């Protein structure tokens, strides 16, 4: 999943950082190193920081993909 950065470090993905800072708080999908993530973030206004979670979309969709495979298999066998 996402990396945790200490307050003294700078996040290296400038495009992602810009999108978070300029965003409206809504989650969005973003690719990092060829993998897609759902980015969820929230500002901490008193500290001028953001809490950020990068959740791999393949993890989010794994149950749905498994269910689809089961439905297709059942349809093929019973259909």
SSE layout and pairings?
Layout: H1 14-22, E1 28-32, E2 35-44, E3 49-56, H2 57-78
Antiparallel strand pairs: 1-2, 2-3
Q: Would you write up a description of this structure?
A:
The protein is an alpha+beta fold. It is 39% helix and 29% strand. The protein has helices at 14-22, 57-78, and strands spanning 28-32, 35-44, 49-56. Strands 1-2-3 form a three-stranded antiparallel β-sheet. β1 and β2 form a beta hairpin. The longest helix is centred in the C-terminal third of the chain and has 22 residues, at 57-78. The model has no long low-confidence stretch (mean pLDDT 83).
Task: Quickly list its features.
3 strands; alpha+beta; elongated; 79 residues; single chain; 2 helices
| SS elements, strand count | 3
Succession of helices and strands: HEEEH
Poorly predicted regions are: none
Proportion of residues in helical segments: 25-40%
User: Which strand-content bin applies to the residues?
Assistant: 25-35%
The rounded distance between the terminal residues' Cα atoms is: 40 Å
Shape: elongated
Number of contiguous helices: 2
Lateral arrangement of strands in the main beta sheet: 1-2-3
Radius of gyration, CA atoms, in whole angstroms: 18 Å
Q: Give the biggest beta sheet.
A: 3 strands, antiparallel
Averaged pLDDT, please?
Answer: 83
């Amino acid at each position: 999943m996402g990396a945790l950065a200490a307050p003294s470090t700078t996040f290296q993905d400038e495009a992602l950082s810009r999108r978070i800072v300029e965003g409206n708080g809504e989650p969005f999908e973003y690719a990092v190193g060829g993998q897609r993530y759902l980015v969820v973030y929230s500002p901490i206004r008193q500290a001028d920081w953001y809490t950020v979670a990068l959740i791999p979309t393949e993890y989010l969709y794994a149950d749905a993909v498994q269910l689809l495979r089961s439905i297709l298999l059942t349809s093929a066998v019973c259909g």
